[in-house]
Amino acid sequence: ANRAAAWIMVMSMVPSRVAFGVGASIRAGPRPHGWSSVPQSAPSTLPRPRNRRPVSCQAKKKNKGGKKGKAKKVSALDAVLKKKPTSGEQEEGKATSAGQHTSVDVVMWLLLVVESYTKAVGKKLFAEQFSIQDIAEKIYDAPFVLLSHRYGEEGEAVREHRFNYANRRALELFDCEWADLVGKPSSSSGEDDEAVQSDRDALLMACKKEGFVENYEGWRVSSKGERFLVKGATLWEVKTSSGDASLGQAVVFTEWEDAEGNTRSVAEEGGAVDGDGDEEAGEVVDLAEAERLVQEQADLVRGLKANLTNEDAEVKEAVTVLLERKAALEALQQAS
């Protein structure tokens, strides 16, 4: 009886419909059979507790910058490109450019240039011997003008070949810096005249067919527009050590004639000499020195591998140098 009375009291206190917001309601469940309660209408709103105030919360608005809109994002690359170099950075850039003629790629190229010249022409570029480490400086400061261009992709037009080397005398003659010439189409060395360019095209094609051309004369123009006539130039194909493929062409000369008809010449000593005699002149580096350099680098690689793996950067770099020295040694062995 007491439980029944308690149940009746509880159910009488629950409204038949309780509001949970607009359009939301819940009905009281069915009453147990045999029991009843007096329904009460639900209040229209729930009573608000005393001493409490409604609080309104809003998310803080983002600053959209008013009419100016969002600021444009600038990539790190854009920032670098737009940044003006300081005087110190400019000097550093000049120093880097000045040292490009001694890079590993240039040294390997010059070894092929010298080797190809000897094989094609039967002459030597130098009368003295020097090591691989000195080849870049020796040719750069040599008493003759030497330039070369490298072939690009298959099907590249003759006038699209680009300079990849010029020694000091060449840069002086064309009145420009290394960065101004290297990477530019070699056709820019001739006047923008169809007759001049056609003559140059014929020269390059003849060289590619025959392997080399001697005693060439042709008009060229400096970066400042000064014309000069190249005299007694030798042009030859630069090939791989095996001779199976041509990589580009190189030219060497010591005399030219300016627009007024005055003959100009670099120093006479140290130029190309015949290689038909019994003398050993013309070896860019002796075989003993090349073999020593290879052995020295091989020992270094073995030492690194004792504590490192083949994937470590130090090992990879050392192996690259070793392969380059082996290639240089092979080139000298084939040329001797």
Automatic annotation (TrEMBL):
<feature type="region of interest" description="Disordered">
    <location>
        <begin position="260"/>
        <end position="279"/>
    </location>
</feature>
<keyword id="KW-0030">Aminoacyl-tRNA synthetase</keyword>
<dbReference type="InterPro" id="IPR013978">
    <property type="entry name" value="MEKHLA"/>
</dbReference>
<keyword id="KW-0547">Nucleotide-binding</keyword>
<feature type="signal peptide">
    <location>
        <begin position="1"/>
        <end position="19"/>
    </location>
</feature>
<dbReference type="InterPro" id="IPR000738">
    <property type="entry name" value="WHEP-TRS_dom"/>
</dbReference>
<feature type="domain" description="WHEP-TRS">
    <location>
        <begin position="286"/>
        <end position="336"/>
    </location>
</feature>
<dbReference type="GO" id="GO:0006418">
    <property type="term" value="P:tRNA aminoacylation for protein translation"/>
</dbReference>
<dbReference type="Pfam" id="PF08670">
    <property type="entry name" value="MEKHLA"/>
</dbReference>
<feature type="compositionally biased region" description="Basic residues">
    <location>
        <begin position="49"/>
        <end position="73"/>
    </location>
</feature>
<keyword id="KW-0067">ATP-binding</keyword>
<dbReference type="GO" id="GO:0004812">
    <property type="term" value="F:aminoacyl-tRNA ligase activity"/>
</dbReference>
<protein>
    <recommendedName>
        <fullName>WHEP-TRS domain-containing protein</fullName>
    </recommendedName>
</protein>
<feature type="region of interest" description="Disordered">
    <location>
        <begin position="30"/>
        <end position="98"/>
    </location>
</feature>
<keyword id="KW-0648">Protein biosynthesis</keyword>
<keyword id="KW-0436">Ligase</keyword>
<keyword id="KW-0732">Signal</keyword>
<dbReference type="GO" id="GO:0005524">
    <property type="term" value="F:ATP binding"/>
</dbReference>
